[in-house]
Amino acid sequence: MNRVLWVIQVLLALLYLLAGGTKLVMPPEAMAPPPGGMSLPVPFLRFIGVMEILGAIGLILPGLLRIRPGLTPLAATGLVIIMIGAVATSIGAGLTYALLPCIAGLLALTVAYGRWRLAPLSASPRSSVSRVSA
Question: Is there a domain that residue 130 lies in?
Fold first, then answer.
């Protein structure tokens, strides 16, 4: 289960790095919603882009560095919240527009649950030794 979660985490991190980076560098004119979709202010979209990038980093770095591994399920939960909003704002444009955020949200939910309950990441042995000796 640990390997499956790592594969999902890496794929989601790549997706959110791409999506968040795009929201940060895209000109405002290009961020128009699809026909029937809800229009959002550009500063809010930039904020969402930053949160997606931070979420992507939170999916990988805590487990990779074994520093504060409890941040990984929190990052995944934050991305689930963002994807709920993405589905809600894109559903008016049609189900096909809401499909990708829905799948990404479900995968992030899988990571959140998996890292909290099924296969939690552990901190480095060095940090637990230093806490015991201190």
Answer: no
| 111 lies in some domain | yes
Which DSSP state fits 39? P
- pLDDT of 131 higher than 50: no
Report yes or no on 91 lying in a domain. yes
CA distance linking residue 122 with residue 105, whole number of Å: 24
- Rounded to two decimals, the pTM is 0.87
Burial class, 100, CB count within 10 angstroms (exposed 0-12 / middle 13-18 / buried 19+) = middle
Domain total of the chain:
1
Residue 103: inside a domain? yes
What is the pLDDT averaged over residues 92-97?
90
Distances from the Cα of 132 to the Cαs of 107, 122, 125, 128, in angstroms? 37, 16, 11, 6
Residues 98 and 92: beta-carbon distance below 8 Å: no
Q: In 3D, which of 72, 95, 92, 84 has the Cα closest to residue 13?
A: 72
Mean pLDDT of the residues in the chain: 91
Read off the DSSP letter of residue 29. Answer: G
19 lies in which domain range? 2-123
Q: What percent of the chain is modeled with pLDDT above 90?
A: 76
